[in-house]
Amino acid sequence: MKSAIFTSIVTAVSILLMSIVHAQTPPTQIRIVTQGFAPLQWDNNGSPDGYVAEYMLSVIEQVNQIAPVSVKAFEFLPWKRAMLIAETVPDVLFFSLSRTMAREDKFHWLGEVSPYGQNFYQLRSRPRIDVDRIEDLRNLDIKIGVQDGSNLHTYLNQLEFEETGNLVPITDYHQGIEMLYLERIDLLPLTGFLAEASACKQGFNGSMLEPVIHIEALARPLWAVFSKKTDPELVEIFQKEMVKLKQNGLWEDRMNQHRENWQKLACANDVSLNSENGK
Which CATH number is 2-116+220-248 given? Predict the structure, then answer.
């Protein structure tokens, strides 16, 4: 009996001491960097929105109950700049990116945040581009828009596309969509479940997009990462809390809701396009 009472007292005191330590410990200031990629993460009139953004902010709330953390900044940046910051600055949370061999040792990998798969798209109004393999595109007189410094850019260079002069560097998919509809490029890589809505969102007719070929080699989930100099104990807490929020269904519910809302919002007022330039 006395032993049970003693154990209860020790447990209560331990919890109290942990609470005091937690309250007195200065919070780790986390800097979030990412590139806008709706509906995963995007800048909604100055506030972060999207199912990945909401999921990771919910993770931070859960983590804060275990280890004091706070969000120092939530920045939407060009991809290469966001990547550079995540590679060099401590306590930087970065998403959503593919996990590759070249990147494996550059970050602490926290967990998957979104499925991902791209196709090359062309306009239905243009002559049909018909190939069986990505490599076959090298032999065609076409222009392919590719985000500079992206995983796809690296992959195409490995396939010796750089020597063909077919690749046209673009800042992001917004610029790429505009260039495609203005017929300045012939092909553009877009995420399968977002392609039509992304075009509609920019005022173009999304139904004019036609998939040419799936980019099978890069069909892999997107991840959230911490910069290398982040405290390993904090990294482990984040990893565990991400798993818990997935298990309770929060991540899947947010993803499905945002995808559905984004599609409806983007293409609700789809415009009629002429066959000449698609806008």
Answer: 3.40.190.10
Residue 278 near residue 125, CB atoms below 8 Å: yes
Give the pLDDT confidence of 91-122 residue by residue, as tens digits: 999 999 999 899 999 999 999 999 988 999 99
Which pTM was predicted?
Answer: 0.71
Distance in angstroms (rounded) separating the CA atoms of residues 161 and 138? 6
Question: Whole-angstrom Cα distance, residue 90 to residue 227?
Answer: 6
The residues of the chain that CATH labels 3.40.190.10 are 2-116+220-248, 118-219
Question: 87 near 242, Cβ under 8 Å?
Answer: no
pLDDT category of residue 38 using cuts at 50, 70 and 90:
confident
Q: Return the closest-CA partner of residue 38 out of 54, 17, 22.
A: 54
Distance CA 216, CA 261 (A): 27
3-state secondary structure at position 71: strand
Strands 42-44 and 92-98: unpaired
